[in-house]
Amino acid sequence: MSDKVVKRSVRIAGHPTSVSIEAPFWTALRDIAFARGVSLNALVASIDADRETGNLSSAIRLAVLAHYRDRAP
Length: 73
Known about the structure:
This protein is α+β, with helices and mostly antiparallel strands and 73 residues long. The chain has one domain (5-71): Arc Repressor Mutant. It is built from 3 helices and 2 strands; from the N terminus they run ββααα. The chain has helices spanning 23-36, 40-50, 56-71, and strands at residues 5-12, 15-22. A two-stranded antiparallel sheet has the order 1-2. Strand 1 and strand 2 form a beta hairpin. Helix 1 crosses helix 2. It is globular and about 40 Å long.
């Protein structure tokens, strides 16, 4: 899997915004959204609403990390 940064457009509160994160994070984010039964846009909007500081790309990386840390034995 490539660690290339991929820029994608997502919609948050009806507004398009672009997010640049590494390809493995996009894959993990898509997997998390599927597991929760929500769209990728809905998951990103939720992450955006919950973040206290930093940019959205960093908040997404931290949310993915937290998801997998919470599931680690």
